[in-house]
Specification:
The complex is a heterodimer of chains A (100) and B (464). By secondary structure, chain A is mainly alpha-helical. In chain A, 72% of the residues lie in helices and 0% in strands. Chain A has 4 helices and no strands. Chain A has helices at residues 5-25, 32-43, 47-55, 65-94. In chain A, helix 2 (32-43) packs antiparallel against helix 4 and helix 3 runs antiparallel to helix 4. By secondary structure, chain B is α/β, with parallel strands linked by helices. Chain B is built from 19 helices and 8 strands. Chain B has helices spanning 3-22, 27-52, 57-79, 85-109, 124-152, 165-186, 189-207, 215-237, 240-263, 268-272, 276-279, 281-286, 298-306, 317-322, 325-337, 356-363, 374-377, 399-402, 453-463, and strands at residues 117-118, 121-122, 310-315, 341-346, 371-373, 386-390, 421-426, 446-450. Chain B is elongated, with a radius of gyration of 25 Å. At the A-B interface, helix 1, helix 2, helix 3 and helix 4 of A face helix 1, helix 2, helix 3, helix 4 and helix 8 of B.
Chain lengths: 100, 464
Amino acid sequence: MEIDPFIFRLSIFILSIFVGYYVVWSVTPSLHTPLMSVTNAISSVIIVGAIIASLAGSSDKVFEISNIFGFLAIILAAVNIFGGFLVTQRMLQMYKKKKK
Amino acid sequence: MTANLSALFYLISGILFILALRGLSSPETSRQGNYFGIAGMSIAIIVTFLSVGNFGSGLVYVLIFLVIGGSIGAFIAFRIPMTAMPELVAGFHSLVGLAAVFVAISAFLKPEAFNLGTIGNIKLASLIEMSLGAAIGAITFSGSIIAFLKLRGIMSGSPITFKGQHLINLMLGLAIITLIYYLCISQSSNIFWSIVLISFLVGVLLIIPIGGADMPVVISMLNSYSGWAAAGIGFTLENTALIITGALVGSSGAILSYIMCKGMNRSFFNVILGGWGATDQSVSSESKEQKPFKSGNADDAAFLMKNASSVIIVPGYGMAVAQAQHALREMVDALKKNGVKVSYAIHPVAGRMPGHMNVLLAEANVPYDEVFELEEINNDFANCDVAYVIGANDVTNPVAKTDPQSPIYGMPVLDVEKSKSVLFVKRSLSAGYAGIDNDLFYRDNTLMLFADAKKMTEEIVKSL
C-alpha cells in the first residue's frame, strides 16, 4: 500500500518540532528578544500562500475576492518580513563585547 | 518549475531558517544567522513566483504590494525605540495571525488555485487544516492586538475578569471544534466564517484577564500560536518551508513561555487563567502600618558606590519606563574609572518580554559579557559591596524564599539582600505587581532612593 503524502508532511512537522526544541534551548537567554523578532520574521514565510492566492485565476481578472485576500496577506506578511529581519539586525548590531 | 524541484528549494529555505535560530546561540554568530534567515525567505519567495509561473498583470500588483508592505516594515524597524520592542513584537504577531486567516479564506474561496479540490468539494484533510490554520491565526491576531494595546498603555494593564469567564472560553473552544466538524460535512461558507469570527472573540477573551507583568508569558505564547497557525496553513498548501517554520516557531514560543513561567514559579495555566494582580491586591492594603526604613539622596549613593570594590546592577521594567539605560551606563563608566568592578544581574522575567533588559543594555553600549543571568550571578551578591536596584521589585523580594504564605513563594529571586548594602531606586514604597510589600525596603542595609530612575541615576553621575 502506498503511503499518504500527508504522513510524510506530518513526519517533517514532528521532526522539526524536535529540531526546534533543541535549537531553541541552545539560544542564549540574552538573545531571547532577537529570537522572538526573528521567529516572527520567518513565520511570515506564509507569504508563499499569499502569493499563490493573489496570482490564482485568470490574468484578466486580477481583483477577484480571493485575490484581494491574497494581496492583503502579502502586505501584512511583507511588513513582517522586512520589519522583523531589519529590527533583528538592528538589535544584534548593538550586542558588543568588552573592548580589550 | 516542477513541483518536486520547488519542494526541494522549500526544504533548503526551511534548513536556512533552522540555521538562523541556531546562530542565536551566541552574539558572535547571531548576525550571520540573521542573514541565513533572509536568504531562506528570499529563496522561498522566488521559488513561489517561479512555480506559480503566472507572469500576467497580477504579478505587477504582487510586487507593488510587496514593496508597500516592505517599506512600512522597514520604516517601523528603523524608527522603533528599543523600549517599545515588546509592543512591536506583539504587533508583528498580530500581522502573522491575520495573514494566516487571509490565506485560509482565500484557499477556501478558491480551492482550485491551491490544488485542494473545487468549491463545495474541498478535500477533507485540507478543510480541517485550513480551518485550524484560520482559527489559530484569528486567535493570534486578536490576542496580539489586546497584548499590543496593553503594552502600549492604550488599554489598562490590569486584568479584566468577570464571572464565568473560563466557562465561556471553554464553550467557545468547543463550539469551534463542533463547527469544524460540521464544516467538513456541509462545506458551508457560513460555518467557515463563524469559525473565524468566534476565534477572533476567543483571542480577545483569552488575553484580557492577564495582567501587565505576565506579558512575557503572553508574548511568548502568541509567538507560539503564530507558529502553529503557519504550520496549519503549511499543511493546507503542502508546503515544507511553512511546515518546518511553523514547527520551529511553535516550539520556540512554547519553550520561551515555559522559561518565563519557571522564572515566576507558576504553572502555565495559572498565568493563562488570570494574574496575581487580580486576586492578591487585598494583601497589601491590610497591613499598612509603617515600618521603619532609611532613605538617602544621590550624594549618599555616589559615596557608597565610589568606595565599593564591586557593584551589581539589578535592572527591571522601571528602568525601561524611565528610559534610564543610557544614564545608567554613564554611571557605570564613572564607577569603572574609580576602579569599581561592575556587573549586571538580569532576572528571567525582568521587563515585559524575554530578554528585554539585555536589549536595552546592549542599546546603551553595555558589553554583553558584563551582563549575567540569575543562576550565573546569584552567588556573587554575598561578596558584593553595593547592589543597585533600578526599576525592579518583586524579583528581589526575599519573602519568596522565606514565607510559604506569600503568593510569590518559591519564585527564583536575586539574592540582593546578601550584598553589604542595597541601593533601591523607586518612586515610593508602593507594592510591586504581585501586590505584596517588599521586605527588602526595611532591611538595615537598604537605602531607599526615592526618585525617578533616570533622574536619580543622572544625579549620582554628577556627584561621582
